[in-house]
Write a structure and sequence with these properties.
Distance between the termini: 25 Å
Number of domains: 2
Order of helices and strands: EHEHEHEEHEEEEEEEHHEHHHHEH
Number of helices: 11
Radius of gyration: 19 Å
Number of strands: 14
CATH class of the largest domain: Alpha Beta
Largest sheet: 9 strands, mixed
Structural class: alpha/beta
C-alpha cells in the first residue's frame, strides 16, 4: 500500500499562457478551497500579457512563480516547469477550473485508498455544473481503435451528473484539466511527450503508465467546474489537427498488436470522419485532418522508435482496466448508444 500523502506534500501547478483573464476569474476559488499548507504554483509559458505582474501584485507570496522564456506548449511547458518544483504529488490544473469546496484532501484519500498513481475528480461544466464536462467527465476509457471516451460523455453527448456517475472508479485515463500524479509515476514516465505540444498528452502519459502496471482513477465523489476550450475553441482547425495527429501518434506508441492493421483501420475511420466534415461544410476541419495524417507520416519513423523502446521496458506489465475491446464509433453512430453506461463496459456497474 502506498504511503499517505498530506496536503503539505502537494503542489498545485497551473500552466499559464496569456491567461490573465482566466487567472482573475478562477484562481480565487482555487486559493479559497486549497489547504493553506498546499503550495500553489503558476508556470508562466512565456506570456506577453500582464499575467505575471498581476500575480505578483495580487497573490504573492501565496502563489509562487516559475517563468519560462518562451511558449513551450502545454506538454513541454509542464515538463519544463516541474523541473523547478518538488512535491510528492503534482496537481496539474488548468487555469479555467473553478472549485466549490474541498478537493485536494478527498482526491488524495481516494488515491491512497485504491493505490492509484494518477487520478482526476469528476469534471462538470462551469456554466452548467449539473452536467458532465467534455474533457474528462467521470473518467476516461479507450476503445480498440484508440478513440478516447468518458463515462458521462460520448462524443458530443454529455450526461447530467447522477449517483451512477458520482462514484470512485479505476479508469484508463484521467483528465488533464485537473490531473493528480505521484512524483514517482511522473519521473518513471519522464513526464509528458513534449512533441505532442498540446491535446492528448495526458492520455499518452496514462497509457504509458498503464502499460507499466500503474493504476489510474476518477474520484467521482469530488466535482470541479471546468470552462473548457479556454485556449483553443472546439471549432479551431488547429485543435482538430492536434487531436487527429496526436491520437494517431499516441495509439501507435502504446497499443499492443500488429500495428499496420490497427493503424490502417483507424486512419480509414479518420478519413470517413473527414469526408463527413466536408459534407457538412466544414472544409477547414477536413483539411486539418488531411494535414494531421501528413504530419503523422512524417513522424512515423520516430514514433516507431518510441514504440519499440516502450515495448522493451523491463517493467512492462499492462493494466487493461478501462480498455474496451469494441468500437465506440459503432456503438454511438450505428447502434445509437449515447451513454457509456449502456455499453456494458467490463467491471462497470
Amino acid at each position: 500500500m502506498m504511503g499517505t500523502v498530506q496536503p503539505a506534500d502537494v503542489a498545485v501547478v497551473i500552466l499559464n499562457w496569456n491567461g490573465q483573464h482566466h487567472l482573475e476569474t478562477y484562481l480565487p476559488s482555487v486559493l479559497k478551497h486549497t489547504p493553506a499548507d498546499t503550495r500553489v504554483w503558476v508556470v508562466d509559458n512565456g506570456s506577453t500579457d500582464d499575467s505575471v505582474a498581476w500575480l505578483r501584485a495580487n497573490h504573492s507570496p501565496r502563489v509562487q512563480l516559475v517563468e519560462l522564456d518562451q511558449n513551450f506548449g502545454f506538454a513541454a511547458g509542464y515538463n519544463e516547469g516541474l523541473k523547478h518544483i518538488d512535491a510528492e504529488v503534482y496537481v496539474l490544473l488548468n487555469s479555467d477550473v473553478r472549485m466549490d469546496g474541498p478537493w485536494v484532501e478527498p482526491v488524495l484519500a481516494a488515491m491512497d485508498e485504491h493505490g492509484w498513481d494518477v487520478a482526476s475528480p469528476l469534471l462538470v461544466q462551469d456554466v452548467r455544473p449539473s452536467m458532465c464536462e467534455h474533457a474528462g467527465a467521470a473518467g476516461g476509457w479507450m476503445d480498440k481503435d484508440g478513440y478516447p471516451f468518458c463515462l458521462g460523455r460520448l462524443f458530443e453527448s454529455v450526461e447530467p451528473v447522477d449517483v451512477w456517475l458520482a462514484q470512485n472508479r479505476e479508469v484508463f485515463w484521467a483528465s488533464g484539466a485537473c490531473f493528480f500524479i505521484r512524483k514517482e509515476a511522473w519521473l518513471h514516465a519522464k513526464g509528458f511527450d513534449g512533441s505532442l505540444f498540446a491535446h492528448m498528452e495526458e492520455i499518452d502519459l496514462c497509457w504509458r503508465l498503464k502499460n507499466e502496471g500503474k493504476r489510474v482513477g476518477c474520484v467521482g465523489t469530488v466535482r470541479v467546474r471546468h470552462l473548457g476550450g479556454g485556449t483553443l475553441q472546439t471549432t479551431s482547425p488547429f485543435k482538430t489537427y492536434l487531436n487527429f495527429r496526436n491520437n494517431l501518434v499516441v495509439m501507435l506508441k502504446n497499443r499492443d498488436g500488429f500495428w499496420p492493421a490497427f493503424m490502417f483501420r483507424r486512419m480509414t475511420l479518420d478519413g470517413i470522419a473527414a469526408w463527413k466534415m466536408l459534407a457538412g461544410g466544414q472544409w477547414r476541419q477536413f483539411l486539418a485532418v488531411g494535414q494531421a495524417h501528413g504530419a503523422f507520416y512524417l513522424r512515423l519513423a520516430s514514433t516507431l522508435r518510441k514504440r519499440r523502446k516502450l515495448r522493451r521496458s523491463p517493467t512492462r506489465n499492462p493494466n487493461m482496466k478501462g480498455w474496451w475491446r469494441k468500437s465506440v464509433i459503432v456503438a454511438y453512430f450505428l447502434q445509437g448508444h449515447a451513454r457509456a453506461r449502456d455499453l456494458k463496459l467490463p467491471g462497470v456497474h
